[in-house]
């Protein structure tokens, strides 16, 4: 096992820069998730750690050793691919033992390692099957088995769950996390799904357009997003953003006037510049003293009720524990929880509230 | 405006009893027969009849212009003692084996090159396809010219430009030179088919398999032998079968370049059959030579069917 350090890593394809200097420390045994929208460079970064892409600038350090020019097979890493990349002409057993066979490991070592991995992953009944004969979740497990067999210093996962259906995804999410807790191998996991990131990670790295937006634990990112992008990306349904300005110790949304349209601030900052007031749907509550919004859609999910509404022209989503019988066009009065509201600069997008 | 939505007009459709023809067409057995008829008809007229006629002719002493009578295995008996026939059998096997090996060696090599990121890939691919697009007889004439005893460009380059030789090569005048020259022409013509088919096969192999193998520690030779080769085998076997069949039954190249000469050394079974049957007029004997090709072709087909057919890993389901 080993730590991974990414120091000012850059990548360009041709003349197009993909990564603009990424810095990241992953501690030994940590589960680190790289998350971001498609094309943000997270998979490229992972493939650079694996050695499948060369590095245009900066250093990648695994276990204290710069590996920029170390070929993939000597980096002591194992990778699980999005499409699993199982060898179709080999059985499950042969797939898992392939790296050992290439390393000319003795037969008893191969046998011991494959049976250990298959025991961990519950693959024993499938050892003599071919990948074609397996379901998506089973293939996923074989791909992990192939990684486990090698006792790598670092596990790399490239969107491993995106080819599975929703239910299986939740199950495999649990299995991967469970596996990590048992093996405590340093893991770098790439996904575009913020729920996967939130549920699995020790540390989340939010990326956008080749830059790191914020690094932190799941709850740090949820509670204190550093900028508008992270605030909108983490959390589901995503945070409401209200443009406006700070006046008389309260927040006044644009396009609304009157004292009724003032929202309480989390901290007294941001006076004098255009700001964005961020509040998560689950941090709104119904309150007779609140501001009026026009209901557009009500979605009861049983455990909570989602209300899509408009405050003036700005769309607003609320998630309420109570059951709401409002209809389209009705007016609801809602109030944000000021301690859980966020204030961002409209110009820079950066967080203003502490 | 008139009313556009009115109540449905009451209408009781009469249940008519189907006619005799309708009942006949509802009969599954009859329908199967009817639907198969065009295909079976075409097969009979264009495949079974000529093949049957050829086989029948092989057992007669028919000449052109004179109907023959059934003579049993007489044609085959005379072929058994016919040196020219055995020469043709030998050359057909030689031609097929050597040309196929070369076509596959070079074709696979080209396909592997084209599967890498080479510049001007599509242009190179188009150029590679050219020998296959040119009509065979046209390229045969070009080769005839290149192999000419007096005007050959190959001789010209070797003798007059490079000065490596003192005399021009008599490509088509001596048996072994002629044999190799024809193999060369066939390889030139056959490579595009092999290269493009194998390239298509290579492109079905997911790049992530190579990446996974790279991480698993495979060298480039191991990636070729352990990933590329087994995954290419299904398409390779199909292409191999086709290539062997095409080469074994080749006619145009040989007939256009050498007509089987010199001293019958480059006769393929197909050219000899034609030579004896049409210009020679001995339809029966020509047919017998053609029929003698059938066992070889059946053997080649069976080989590829059994030895190189679908592997277990290609099959889905739980068929253990």
Automatic annotation (TrEMBL), chain A:
Keyword Ribosomal protein: no
PANTHER family, sorted: BLL2173 PROTEIN, MALTODEXTRIN IMPORT ATP-BINDING PROTEIN MSMX
Segments forming domain ABC transporter: 4-234
One GO MF term attached to the UniProt entry: ATP binding
Key words of the record: ATP-binding, Nucleotide-binding, Transport
Protein's UniProt name: sn-glycerol-3-phosphate ABC transporter ATP-binding protein UgpC
The family this protein is said to belong to: Belongs to the ABC transporter superfamily.
Keyword set includes Repeat: no
Gene: ugpC
TrEMBL record, chain B:
Keyword Transport appears in the UniProt entry: yes
Pfam family name, one: BPD_transp_1
Protein name: Sugar ABC transporter permease
Key words of the record: Cell membrane, Membrane, Transmembrane, Transmembrane helix, Transport
Residues passing through the membrane, by range: 29-49, 88-114, 126-147, 190-210, 231-249, 287-308
Matching PANTHER family: BLR7065 PROTEIN (PTHR43005), SPERMIDINE_PUTRESCINE TRANSPORT SYSTEM PERMEASE PROTEIN (PTHR43005:SF1)
Protein's cellular compartments: Cell membrane
